[in-house]
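INFO  loader      accepted 1 record
INFO  loader      residues=216
INFO  predictor   begin
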Amino acid sequence: MKLFTADISPNCRRVEAVLHHLGLFDEVEVHRLNMMAGEHHRDDLKAANPNLKVPTLVVGDMNLWEANPTMIYLSDRAGADAFCPTDAKSRFEILRWMSWEVQHYNQAARDIAWETMVKPLFGLGEPDEARIEAASENFHRFAAVLDAHLEGRAYMLGDTVTVTDFAVGALSALALNPQSRMPLEGHANIIAWYQRLETVPSWAMTAPARLMEAAE
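INFO  predictor   done
INFO  writer      dumping tokens
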């Protein structure tokens, strides 16, 4: 397997964390790209993913891109039914929450983090306060749904961590960083879940150290 990945990216983090969690990371030839230097325009990535985006995983004659289906593929490949259940009800829950996080919850979180952390880190200008305010309102809307779902649950699907946590919790490190100004107030269950997730070994070892250090 060959993985095209990049530091800082929450999408790359979730795939790398799954590889570690499943004990597959040592089987992967890792190509860590400097996106700011334009390394994602290299020909071998373009051949594998015409979108020129990471993470992209090449497995034999299959080119896997988009983080969530890649994580499901890896889990099924490893036969990790506890981590990514295959029964119809659980698989629906996984797919539902993965779709939801991409379209709603993490979209709002990404909009905030872009303004408060990414732009300052890469010298892309001052945060746009109007955009932050609009994204924060959207975040609260969907955070209320997640916080209610987490009531009485340690993780997204119950008492044990699953691939769903790595998907919905992809921005956990950024959200917990005060510089992100993520509006977590009033969402105690999310905060506790984020903190719990950061202690999972495979998740902890993939934390975005560069961005965390830059924010200190």
